[in-house]
Amino acid sequence: MLTRQNRNTILIAVAIFVVTQTFIFASIPNNTDRDSVAILVKSGTGLWEIADKLKKNGLIRYPALFVLCSLAYRGRLLAGEYELRKDMSIIEIVAKMGRGERNIYVLKILEGHNLYNIAEMAEKSGIMGSDEFLRLARDPGFLKRLGIKADSLEGYLPPDTYYYSREISTDHFIERIVKKTFKNFAKEDIKRGMENLKFDTHKTLILASIIEKEARLKEEKPVISAVFHNRLKQGMSLDADPTVIYGTGNFNGPITRSDLSTPTPYNTYKFPGLPKGPICNPDRNSIMAALYPASVDYLYFVSKNDGTHVFSKDMNDHNRYVAMYQRAKNAKKQ
């Protein structure tokens, strides 16, 4: 007759044997096929549902064994998109999902990028198609949900590097990016600058976006900002080439006389004041320059063809500088 101690010893031995055999069996690769399959696990998905999806995609044979092994992680498999090979064992799959080794997509928004640039980058990175991005960026319902009183997200996507994982939808991903803009505009220095100028967020982004496209150097941004502020105060048109380019969509080649005469809502040669919306996504330096212009009385500037500008107070000086640097530019081409 077995004593209680002997029974316990046998039970422990059986348990160890079962666990060991389960681990060994779960460590055997499903097959020798090294093809990969992308598996999306959404937040809140149960273990049996995950197991069923894995089996349907030829990644495992025994759902119950997968669930059992997953419980070793206390059922804490992380949501996301996983690249899984068919020759992986159940143990390897569970370990990868338990550690959250998900596919991560990177979207890098550079200073001065517009919606078309970002749409192209979103497609190249595999996050979403360019047409899908542009539709979302102009969707009235989406814009209303974000509290943006404009016809697109232009200007509201701050330059930075963003990381996307497919457990969230693309619209929530874009929403997170936009929220960074509103977080930035809640900072005291920006709020104070807007109050002093009686600017709102949209107006600030419009002017900042023009400064972003006109200035290559950080130290020139407040001076270029001052030129635009001075012209606005005097009721002069801004005459900013980048706004014309944005309005016509002619992003390739030099600006033409036809472009300058095209009556788009962004043509600051034909219409006084600011254009209808931002023309790119500006960085913080451009935003601060828009709100804190330099204390100068310049009304004009022209490129010196080296990334810097020469500034002037009257048209005669400006025309002289234009002729000077245009000749230099043409001479370089010859």
UniProtKB/TrEMBL annotation:
CDD domains found in the cross-reference section: MltG_like
Under Gene Ontology molecular function, one entry of this record is: lytic endotransglycosylase activity
User: Which residue positions does UniProt flag as site: Important for catalytic activity?
Assistant: E214
Q: Which reaction does it catalyse?
A: a peptidoglycan chain = a peptidoglycan chain with N-acetyl-1,6-anhydromuramyl-[peptide] at the reducing end + a peptidoglycan chain with N-acetylglucosamine at the non-reducing end
Q: Which GO terms describe its biological process?
A: cell wall organization; peptidoglycan biosynthetic process
EC number(s): the record gives 4.2.2.29
Per UniProt, the keywords (alphabetical) are: Cell membrane, Cell wall biogenesis/degradation, Lyase, Membrane, Transmembrane, Transmembrane helix
- Provide GO CC annotations from the record: plasma membrane
Q: Could you tell me what this protein does?
A: Functions as a peptidoglycan terminase that cleaves nascent peptidoglycan strands endolytically to terminate their elongation.
Cross-referenced NCBIfam families: endolytic transglycosylase MltG (TIGR00247)
Record-stated family: Belongs to the transglycosylase MltG family.
This chain's protein is named: Endolytic murein transglycosylase
Q: Which organism is it from?
A: Syntrophorhabdus aromaticivorans
